[in-house]
């Protein structure tokens, strides 16, 4: 298949591009490299040394003989360029990762809120609009988030996208209707993923676009089988207070002797998936495309749930680290339970990698190897959810 990977220079997009290229697909990365610019804006860099996208693809060709093509396009702003690219290339499938994906960055200031909404909503809408306009019958796979559901389980596991509800009819009987699970975002970023869902519902109904939306949990780890093949194929790894996600942050903090930054009581329960499984799920979703006229297919792309303080305790044990319980810069439930259905990927053959201590140690090893690149002053989470929350800017004892 000819596959366009939008956002293919990013943390999940890059290993996905390598994985699909390895499987024999003709892979085209489309990216505006905004994530690299945001590193510059924030004064941070990936823990792992990342080469330019052109250099990465050159090394991939040297290693495997396979070509990954790169196209510098801003899909939120260069609508005509995107349209022309689709007209000329007519991909069989499109994997859409190209959004601003950090909740703390999206809450940093009014400017960051605007940027996140404009970038994410326009990116998704431009793409849908251009698919219709160019008669491109590609299977669109979008990376959504578990955060569209909120994180509370009300005595039942969170289903995969749709919820059957009973409604009382005029004659007093009960009719059942299937609705999108009620959206309950916890940040501006998560809100954009809720808006994306509505755009997908409309374009699938109105234009028969074939769409799969993957509600992914927090991705942890760094290597996949392909990124391990050469030092210059290494994946990016974010550890800073805006882009670093919780488990990856704990691992790097443990590696450099920084107390693990638990927000509040650490009673927040979240869904997780290893990067290798994330990449494999995309492969499985590609093989299970909806037909024209089908409703949007929704999968929960996660493999296990954990409470933040439990993760901190596991990491503290394996790496002999200390834990710091800090005031929470976010507005979120202090404690929650979370049970999630993920039957569809399991039925398609996903054999999940679970968070075992051996695997965590491997990531601590990556973290230790590149610890010299860490700027400790960029570790505190400096973005607060409301004006009256004052983030703790120095958590380094
Ligand atoms: P990332 O920031 O590392 O990668 C996103 C890529 O998209 C970057 O290379 C960026 O330059 C590009 N991009 C952004 N806006 C663009 C635009 N307008 N035009 C072209 N390119 C653009 O993020 P990631 O961690 O790889 O996440 C990928 C997707 O998966 C995101 O949509 C995110 O919401 C979702 N997701 C990520 C996680 C996670 O833990 N990392 C978890 C669940 C869902
Ligand atoms: N947390 C800490 N300490 C930290 C960092 C985070 O206790 O140092 C807590 C947060 O307060 C939160 C939880 O850990 O309760 C998760 O935070 P996170 O930054 O790891 O994850 P989140 O902001 O939800 O976003 C990440 C990705 C996003 C994706 C989402 C999936 O950045 O792209 O959509 O995970 S999910 O969380 O399932 O919605």
TrEMBL record:
CDD domains: SQD1_like_SDR_e. It comes from the Bacteria. It holds the Pfam family Epimerase. Residues 3-296 form the NAD-dependent epimerase/dehydratase domain. Pathway: Bacterial outer membrane biogenesis; LPS O-antigen biosynthesis. SUPFAM superfamilies: NAD(P)-binding Rossmann-fold domains. Belongs to the NAD(P)-dependent epimerase/dehydratase family. PANTHER family: DTDP-D-GLUCOSE 4,6-DEHYDRATASE-RELATED (PTHR43000). This is NAD-dependent epimerase/dehydratase family protein.
């Amino acid at each position: 298949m000819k596959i366009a990977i939008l956002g293919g220079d990013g943390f999940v997009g890059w290993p996905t591009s390598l994985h699909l290229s390895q499987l024999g697909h003709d892979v085209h990365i489309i990216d505006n490299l905004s994530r690299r610019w945001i590193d510059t804006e924030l004064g941070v860099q990936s823990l792992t040394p990342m080469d330019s996208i052109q250099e990465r693809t050159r090394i991939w060709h040297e290693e495997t003989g396979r070509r990954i093509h790169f196209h510098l396009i801003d899909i939120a702003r260069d609508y005509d360029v995107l349209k022309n690219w689709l007209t000329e290339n007519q991909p069989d499938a499109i994997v859409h990762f190209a959004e601003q994906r950090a909740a703390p960055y999206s809450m940093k200031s009014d400017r960051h809120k605007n940027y996140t909404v404009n970038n994410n909503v326009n990116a998704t809408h431009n793409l849908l609009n251009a698919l219709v306009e160019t008669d491109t019958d590609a299977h669109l796979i979008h990376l959504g988030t578990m955060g569209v559901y909120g994180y509370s389980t009300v005595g039942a596991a969170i289903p995969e996208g749709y919820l059957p509800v009973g409604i009382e009819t005029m004659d007093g009987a009960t009719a059942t209707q299937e609705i999108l699970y009620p959206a309950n975002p916890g940040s501006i970023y998560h809100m954009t993923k809720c808006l994306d869902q509505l755009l997908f519902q409309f374009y699938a109904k109105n234009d028969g676009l074939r769409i799969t939306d993957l509600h992914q949990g927090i991705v942890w780890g760094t290597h996949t089988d392909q990124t391990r093949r050469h030092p210059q194929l290494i994946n990016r790894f974010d550890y800073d207070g805006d882009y670093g996600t919780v488990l990856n942050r704990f691992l790097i903090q443990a590696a450099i002797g920084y107390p693990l930054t638990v927000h509040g009581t650490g009673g927040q329960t979240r869904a997780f998936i290893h990067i290798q499984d994330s990449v494999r799920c995309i492969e499985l979703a590609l093989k299970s495309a909806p037909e024209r006229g089908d409703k949007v297919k929704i999968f929960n792309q996660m493999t296990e749930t954990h409470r933040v303080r439990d993760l901190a305790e596991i990491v503290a044990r394996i790496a002999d680290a200390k834990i710091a319980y800090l005031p929470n810069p976010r507005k979120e439930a202090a404690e929650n339970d979370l049970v999630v259905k993920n039957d569809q990927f399991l039925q398609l053959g996903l054999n999940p990698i679970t968070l075992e201590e051996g695997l965590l140690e491997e990531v601590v090893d990556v973290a230790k190897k590149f610890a010299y690149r860490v700027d400790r002053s960029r570790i505190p989470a400096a973005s607060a959810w409301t004006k009256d929350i004052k983030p703790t800017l120095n958590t380094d004892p």
